[in-house]
Write a structure and sequence with these properties.
This is Thiamine pyrimidine synthase. By secondary structure, the protein is an alpha/beta fold. The protein has 15 helices and ten strands.
Length: 339
């Protein structure tokens, strides 16, 4: 989360994109490791790449033979399109639907690992007028950011709630409309503690707990990169997993390294947000299958939900076109099992 602006990361592929220099992972031939890789991150640099920053600082990417260049993202950067077009070797996207929707539109990208097991998006309300369960949305006005109607519709559909009974108002990232009673609830990331600081108290209803199970910080690459640069991706996953394991046990030091790389961040807010984020990164799923794990069944449920909501403009993609566990299987022994 940026200290200057909230992450307004949307749950579908955005329209804006930035044009970056072309740097591909090179050297080593098909399946080889090493070379330089431009890595398209989801935001401009924050706790979403905490483990990567640790791995870089500790020299673990170098050990893996990968020279990594962080390419910043942001609200107007379509990272999936950049990776698909070859402007980056692989990338990270804030929300899993972006990958499956891009695939349905003909972009040859697939997820190969997941950073955040439970998406941080939630609906925030005040104790005097709480939204503690999906049924509480009925008769209320919900503030969402542009593009956020899709996920709200998914929550309502998952709980058999007629969306005509819920009013929607497009808002920004500032929680003033909620504080002043202009809306009854607002969408926001539970890691965005800086934005919540204007509220004396608040209630939280997570999207995950409302029957819509999405991944956050999804790692993805093109089919070609997954096929031809497998060792490079394996090296990245092993080093990154090591970075998050270290951050889990040495959070204060990890945040120091993050703020050193991105001096515009504030340590206190990044530390508090990272405490929350760690609980979403390491869950029962990672305790069983290790950092980066992802479920084929969960991906299929997401595809089915978005198909039901008629979000795919073309034929819905198959789960095997959206994700692959090849890299995870190859790195199973080195990925930490924490939860």
């Amino acid at each position: 989360m940026s200290d200057k602006v909230s992450r307004r990361r949307f749950l579908a592929v955005g329209g804006g994109l930035a044009v970056g220099g072309f740097v591909t992972a090179c050297g080593g031939g098909p399946g080889g490791a090493g070379g330089t890789a431009k890595y398209q991150i989801a935001w401009t640099g924050d706790n979403g790449v905490l483990g990567e920053v640790v791995a870089e600082a500790k020299g673990w990417y170098k050990e893996a033979g990968v020279k990594l260049t962080f390419q910043p993202g942001g609200p107007n950067v379509n990272g999936v399109t950049l990776v698909s077009g070859g402007a980056a070797a692989f990338g990270q996207n804030a929300s899993s639907p972006a990958v499956m929707m891009a695939r349905s539109q003909g972009q040859p990208v697939r997820a190969f690992a997941v950073g955040v097991q439970q998406h941080p998006l939630a609906y925030i309300s005040l104790p005097g007028n709480p939204v503690r369960k999906p049924e509480d949305f009925i008769g209320k006005t919900v503030g969402i950011q542009a593009g956020g109607d899709v996920i709200l519709d998914a929550v309502l559909a998952a709980n058999n709630i007629d969306k005509s009974k819920v009013k929607v108002q497009v808002v920004g990232s500032d929680f003033t409309p909620l504080k002043r009673g202009k809306v009854d609830a607002m969408a926001g990331w539970i890691t965005n503690l800086e934005a919540f600081s204007i509220l004396d108290e608040y209630e939280t209803l997570r999207v995950w707990d409302s029957g819509v199970h999405l991944y956050g910080n999804v790692y993805f690459a093109t089919d070609s990169t997954i096929e031809k640069r497998t060792k490079m991706l394996q090296g990245f996953v092993e080093a990154t997993a090591r970075g998050y394991e270290y951050a889990h046990g040495h959070l204060d030091e990890a945040v120091d390294l993050l703020v050193k790389k991105y001096p515009g961040l504030k340590k206190e807010s990044q530390f508090k947000a990272s405490e929350v984020l760690m609980k979403l990164i390491f869950t029962e799923a990672t305790a069983k299958d290790g950092w980066g794990a992802m479920s084929r069944d969960l991906w299929q449920r997401q595809i089915s939900q978005y198909t039901q909501l008629k979000q795919f403009t073309s034929k819905p993609p198959t789960v095997d076109k959206v994700m692959t566990t090849d890299v995870l299987r190859a790195t199973a022994a080195s990925r930490p099992k924490l939860g």
